[in-house]
Amino acid sequence: MYYPEPISKLVDSFTKLPGIGPKTAVRLAFFVLNMKEDDVLDFAKNLANAKRELTHCSVCGHITDKDPCRICEDQERDGTVICVVQDPKDVIAMEKMKDYQGKYHVLHGAISPMDGIGPEDINVPSLIERLKDEEVEELILATNPNVEGEATAMYISRLVKPSGIKISRIAHGLPVGGDLEYADEVTLSKALEGRRDL
Amino acid sequence: MYYPEPISKLVDSFTKLPGIGPKTAVRLAFFVLNMKEDDVLDFAKNLANAKRELTHCSVCGHITDKDPCRICEDQERDGTVICVVQDPKDVIAMEKMKDYQGKYHVLHGAISPMDGIGPEDINVPSLIERLKDEEVEELILATNPNVEGEATAMYISRLVKPSGIKISRIAHGLPVGGDLEYADEVTLSKALEGRRDL
């Protein structure tokens, strides 16, 4: 025993977080010991509350502390457009942009046969249900631009197409502020393919 | 509001930790949401407990969950040698070595006139008291090898010398596994100065 038990337990807890190895965990644990007691108790409370109070919105699957979530409940948002994303963090990235006024659907993953994840394992069925009930005119597929994300977008697009709903995929191309010289071939090829008239 | 309140509160708590910026804090908070509830509640409990149950040993100043600490209470350890360190983490580094069987005294800092820290602000007075009460034969000064640590070692050494207790300072030199080529001049000069007959 190098550490008194309360420290080693706290170190163990920190080690479970991603990107935090044993040395960082020790540093964090000792930092906590020097924090004000109120701050530490707040931290503990925030941890427990975040886990306890947050659920997934029964409509869109976004993470929320009330069901349905604020975005689904917001009457000012355009319910005829649904943006399909993989992760709650993607909703937040979209919201930060402040340009999008439609609603969302969070899949919580992407189709990945390699990992045994099929359409039934992510929120695809609830999306299909939703399209039947709500008056949706456009579905924007904003899954990640990688193999799994593309496959998921393709799958949903084929599934929904017959219903006549307009389906679009977010553009691939060079990131703003990027450099042509350092762009990889696939991105460059997509950027060329997606060129627009000026 | 991008995040539901319980998440943004948790993100704030994580941001207070050293080396964790806003982006990492968000990543950790979302990771916590996907952790098992028991693990999160354990984490919260460990945080609160670490702060609540740990105090400083009234004898040596090391961090402990019982007073006096296990090292001070251990009858098998040699009470005639006291190793003076700056920080509880230094005690743990020494203990990991497994070579040292004496006791410790933790200063909780170093003398630093630049920051307005004098001998009275760190655990020097309690060390002097301890030297009066206990039968100490040797004091090993293991403060850090930097300006503040050297000044502190020098101060304690001058203060204690008249009492006749043997005072030593841990060696400066090249770290084991290091490379002469990359050693800085001061370390090299100390290594040369501290050379030993073979």
Percentage of helical residues of chain A?
Answer: 40-55%
- Most extensive interface: pair and counts? A-B, 52 and 52 residues
Q: Which percent range describes the beta-strand content of chain A?
A: 5-15%
Major β-sheet profile of chain A: 4 strands, parallel
Order of strands, widest sheet of chain A: 4-3-5-6
How many angstroms does the end-to-end distance of chain A come to?
70 Å
**Oligomer description:** homodimer
* Bulk shape of chain A: globular
What Rg of chain A, in angstroms, do the CA atoms define?
Answer: 22 Å
Give the structural class of chain A: alpha/beta
The low-confidence runs of chain A, each spanning 5 or more residues with pLDDT under 50, are none
State mean pLDDT of chain A (0 to 100 scale): 90
CATH topology of the domain at 77-169 in chain A, which one?
Dna Topoisomerase Vi A Subunit, Chain: A, domain 2
The topology string of helices and strands of chain A comes to HHHEEHEHEHEHEH
Number of helices of chain A: 8
Based on DSSP secondary structure assignment, what is the total number of beta strands of chain A?
A: 6
Please name the defining characteristics of this protein.
homodimer, 198 residues, alpha/beta, Helicase, Ruva Protein, domain 3, Dna Topoisomerase Vi A Subunit, Chain: A, domain 2, four-stranded parallel beta sheet, two-stranded antiparallel ribbon, 8 helices, 6 strands, 44% helix, globular, TOPRIM_dom (chains A, B)
